[in-house]
Design brief:
This protein is an alpha/beta fold. The protein has helices at 34-46, 62-71, 100-114, 133-145, 159-166, 186-195, 207-210, 216-223, 228-239, 252-260, 268-275, and strands at residues 17-18, 51-53, 79-84, 86-87, 95-96, 119-124, 149-155, 173-177, 198-202. The chain has one domain: NADP-dependent oxidoreductase domain (TIM Barrel). Strand 1, helix 1 and strand 2 form a beta-alpha-beta unit.
């Protein structure tokens, strides 16, 4: 999985690993089997994954802790990115808090859990509409100047919010919901590509809902001896050179299936058909 282009050391055009689902049910608490979660993380790196995405809110704190337990000291070439700005009052509950003082505490806690002195990519996890995004991103700039963050990204943003964030500092990544069912960030992907910003689609797999046995997506998958989910990921990789998908799973078998998607190349007709499902 080497030799691909990169944006600020992010391996765009490749498949990363989203580490949200290595936690317990509801993205809350520890996993049912910690050993399986650790084995999954190690297998991802063995298979060539060079980008792992997590957040302090996954668990909360559980995903970051498991990543460090499994992989620290981190191998050369592996980027572990994390996010801050969401609180977890309970399972399946998410509350935005992007006050500068909270982000400073959140970053400090992430540094400890990940066992690093500097986080390679720290992303604002959401936009807190009580706080100007300029203030939230400004707090990350302060942390960057202190050497605690190398690169800054944003997540769950609109085009206007991205523009406001970029007026404060250089933004290297945008992480938004995007898949075959939800194309609301189509224009944002093109903006990122033009600006040299990585676009990291979260929840990139919606193919299961789209692929009845006789659907066009399923027929293309059969043609490639692949699954509909693999075709969905292959389509994302061809959607834009700025895209870095991060499918998450708690299964080594699904991990390997996802990574195999990078070897699938859709022809122009297939790409168009998949885009229209």
């Amino acid at each position: 999985m080497s030799g691909e282009p990169a944006i600020a050391h992010l391996p765009v055009g490749q498949i990363g690993f989203g580490a949200m689902r290595i936690t317990g049910p509801g993205i809350w608490g520890p996993p049912r089997d910690e050993g399986e979660a650790i084995a999954l993380l190690r297998r991802a790196v063995e298979k060539g994954v060079t980008f792992i995405d997590t957040a302090d809110s996954y668990g909360p704190g559980v995903s970051e802790t498991l990543i460090a337990k499994a992989l620290h000291p981190y191998p050369a070439g592996l980027m572990v990115a994390t996010k801050g700005g969401l609180l977890r009052p309970g399972a399946d509950r998410w509350v935005t808090d992007c006050r500068p003082e909270h982000l400073r505490r959140a970053c400090a806690d992430s540094l400890k859990r990940l066992r690093v002195e500097c986080i390679e990519l720290y992303q604002l996890h959401a936009v807190d509409h009580r706080i100007p995004i300029e203030d939230s991103v400004g707090a990350l700039v302060d942390l960057q100047r202190e050497g605690k963050i190398r690169h800054i990204g944003v997540s769950n943003v609109s085009e206007r919010e991205l523009a406001r964030a970029r007026a404060v500092t250089s933004i290297v990544s945008v992480q938004n919901h995007y898949n075959l069912r939800d194309r609301s960030s189509d224009r944002l992907i093109d903006i990122c590509a033009e600006a040299g910003i990585a676009f990291i689609p979260w929840y990139p797999l919606a193919a299961g809902r789209l692929a009845s046995p006789n659907s066009r997506l399923a027929r293309i998958a059969q043609r490639h001896s692949a699954t509909p989910s693999q075709i969905s990921l292959a389509w994302l990789l061809q959607r834009s050179p700025a895209v870095l998908p991060i499918p998450g799973t708690s299964s080594i078998a699904h991990l390997e299936e996802n990574l195999a998607s990078s070897s699938i190349r859709l022809n122009s007709d297939e790409f168009r058909i998949v885009a229209s499902v």
